């Protein structure tokens, strides 16, 4: 049995969607285990581009089943919209192709209103959330007052839950935000209807995953966001509200750690970040401009320009420790073509002290000065390259240095957005 977790190693947008789509061929099921529609995972297949926010990136393979695990927060309006948009493009998403955990929590309209209002109130100190209601929904889950998928599909339970929850939400909306409160009926009716549409897809996902692996089937766990956005291990408070690290897969899908045999780290060949928070290797010069332009670094969810900088192996080693990576998929190597000189951050200097580790935000991270190694660049375009030995020597040296500094092999090297633009050096599940 080979069940692999795919984890983002930086601040999200590493190209997880593309990697998951590619690896789907070798597995039976694909599970999202955390986050919600803050994620934007891009697939380019047969010249067509698909951006998925909630549905796992295996969905373009008709014979595979995708799962939304209990750890995901689901906005049913967004999910149904995504299902409808896929149907318009000929991808029919029924119960054979998608199952949603009955234990997944729902993002309700007040979660989004609170997310946006809190960001506005923070002004210049805002986190730069995606404004999708992710944080407030996880807050309600932990406070034991959330609404789950199982509640949505049972009319009477849904009504009772809303009766219990609405007075407090309306108090917050009216008295704290100065917003209009919701009436029970205006929420109940559309949510009841969405519940009935989604009912055939709702299932005990953990149980199905166990049945699949017992039969010898394999599962791919698709992380959203990235290690440094993890609520526990990321650059808190500039993080998301879930655990995108490998341990999150167990909690968020309902499997035990012994079910997992590999953890694939997805790392961009440079670094990007959307939203606020420290970013030691950020380049606010023509190098940053090159990376934005050549990498088309604009958010797949909010369209925001991504902040760009040099490869940082301090954050990658940190990520490797937290998730126990077994190998790497390095993406967007093609974007570095044309830069005469490349820099790799190997350590930080914090207040005069050399360190190999990341201090927390507020305790030195914002004062970190990256220590760089310089490496020669290359001029050749890489998008047509499919074999390791056909890469320019400088590109191979760059990846080999990255492997040595992180202590992991780069099994996959991606050289373009399309499914086939990938150098496969070793299958990560072997
Ligand atoms: P995810 O959130 O980790 O799935 O990543 P996103 O989809 O948000 O962002 C990655 C972007 O890079 C998308 O536009 C992909 O189509 C694109 N992409 C992925 N791999 C490569 C690659 O190797 N080269 C280039 N140029 N683009 C890539
Ligand atoms: P994928 O899966 C990049 C960032 C937001 C913000 C912080 C908190 O596509 O890699 P949230 O809305 O989650 O409360 O925002 O996290 N963020 C992401 N950045 N890629 C993502 O997902 C992200 N999801 C959240 O920009 O800084
Ligand atoms: Mg993304």
Helix content: 25-40%
Q: Could you say what the CATH architecture of the largest domain is?
A: 3-Layer(aba) Sandwich
Overall pLDDT metric: 96
Assembly classification: single chain
Q: How many beta-strand elements?
A: 20
Backbone structural class: alpha/beta
The CATH topology label of the largest domain is Adenylosuccinate Synthetase, Chain A, domain 1
CATH class categorisation of the largest domain? Alpha Beta
- The coarse overall form would be globular
* Major sheet size, sense and barrel closure: 10 strands, mixed
Radius of gyration: 22 Å
User: How many H/I helical runs?
Assistant: 12
The molecules bound to the chains, other than polymers, are: guanosine-5'-diphosphate, 6-O-phosphoryl inosine monophosphate, magnesium ion
Sequence stretches where pLDDT stays below 50 over 5 or more residues: none
How far is it from the N-terminal to the C-terminal residue, by CA? 10 Å
Overview in brief:
Helices cover 32% and strands 20% of the residues. It has helices at residues 16-23, 76-88, 109-122, 134-142, 149-152, 155-176, 184-198, 205-214, 247-253, 286-295, 313-323, 393-406; strands at residues 4-8, 29-32, 41-45, 48-52, 65-68, 73-74, 98-101, 105-106, 202-203, 219-222, 262-268, 271-273, 307-309, 311-312, 327-331, 341-350, 353-355, 369-376, 410-414, 422-424. The strands form 5 sheets. It has a 10-stranded mixed beta sheet, with helices on both faces. Strands 14, 16, 17 and 18 form a 4-stranded mixed beta sheet that branches.
């Amino acid at each position: 049995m080979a069940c692999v977790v795919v984890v983002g190693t930086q601040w999200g947008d590493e190209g997880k969607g593309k990697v998951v789509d590619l690896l789907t061929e070798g597995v039976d099921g694909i599970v999202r285990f955390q986050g919600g529609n803050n994620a934007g995972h891009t697939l380019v297949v047969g010249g067509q581009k698909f951006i998925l926010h909630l549905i796992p990136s295996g969905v373009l393979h008709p014979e595979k089943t995708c799962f939304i695990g209990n750890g995901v927060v689901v906005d049913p309006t967004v999910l149904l919209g995504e299902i409808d948009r896929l149907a318009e493009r000929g991808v029919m998403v029924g119960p054979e192709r998608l199952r949603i955990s009955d234990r997944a929590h729902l993002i309700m309209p007040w979660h989004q209103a609170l997310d946006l209002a809190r960001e506005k109130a923070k002004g210049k100190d805002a986190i730069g959330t995606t404004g999708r209601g992710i944080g407030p929904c996880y807050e309600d889950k932990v406070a034991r007052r959330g609404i789950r998928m199982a509640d949505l599909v049972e009319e009477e339970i849904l009504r009772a839950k809303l009766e219990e929850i609405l007075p407090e939400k309306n108090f917050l909306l009216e008295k704290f935000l100065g917003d209009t409160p919701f009436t029970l009926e205006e929420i109940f009716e559309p949510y009841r209807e969405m519940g009935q549409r989604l009912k055939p897809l709702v299932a005990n996902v953990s149980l199905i995953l166990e049945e699949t692996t017992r039969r010898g089937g394999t599962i791919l766990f698709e992380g959203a966001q990235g290690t440094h956005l993890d609520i526990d291990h990321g650059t808190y408070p500039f993080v998301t509200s879930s655990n995108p690290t490998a341990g999150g897969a167990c909690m968020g899908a309902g499997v035990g750690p012994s079910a997992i045999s590999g953890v694939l780290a997805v790392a961009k060949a440079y670094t990007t970040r959307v939203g606020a928070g420290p970013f030691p290797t950020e380049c606010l010069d023509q190098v940053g401009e090159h990376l934005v332009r050549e990498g088309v670094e604009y958010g797949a969810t909010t369209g925001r320009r991504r902040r760009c900088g040099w490869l940082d192996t301090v954050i990658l080693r940190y990520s490797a420790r937290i998730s126990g990576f077994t190998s790497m998929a390095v993406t967007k190597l093609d974007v570095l073509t044309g830069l005469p000189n490349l820099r790799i951050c190997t350590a930080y200097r914090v207040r005069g002290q050399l360190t190999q580790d990341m201090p927390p935000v507020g305790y030195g991270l914002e004062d970190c000065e990256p220590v760089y190694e310089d490496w020669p660049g290359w001029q050749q375009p890489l998008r047509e390259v499919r074999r390791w030995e056909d890469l320019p020597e400088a590109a191979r040296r760059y990846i080999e240095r990255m492997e040595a500094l992180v202590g992991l092999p780069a099994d996959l090297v991606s050289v373009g957005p399309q499914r086939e633009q990938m150098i496969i050096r070793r299958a990560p599940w072997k």
